[in-house]
Fold this sequence. Notes:
Blueprint: E1 2-8, H1 13-28, E2 33-39, H2 43-46, E3 52-55, E4 67-69, H3 72-75, H4 79-89
Amino acid sequence: MKKILVACGTAIATSTVVAKKLQEALEKRGLAVKIDQCKASEVAAKVKGYDLVVSTTEVGDTGGKPLVRTVSFLTGIGVDADVQKIAKLLGG
């Protein structure tokens, strides 16, 4: 199972929406994932053990983990392309 860390400014509303939509989209592709949320400022401290970071805002150090910065899950524009990119980064 792959692990994704979703980050936004406050780790409340935005990251919740992104995490839910991303989970559903990846499960439809047959990918088993565990998604957790955090504030963008917490990424460096929490990224260990994750395979990928998805963020809606600027983040600092991702510990060498791939980063996908996107607002597509909020706007609805470009979701499929972002899901495809994320799935590819996860090896699916």
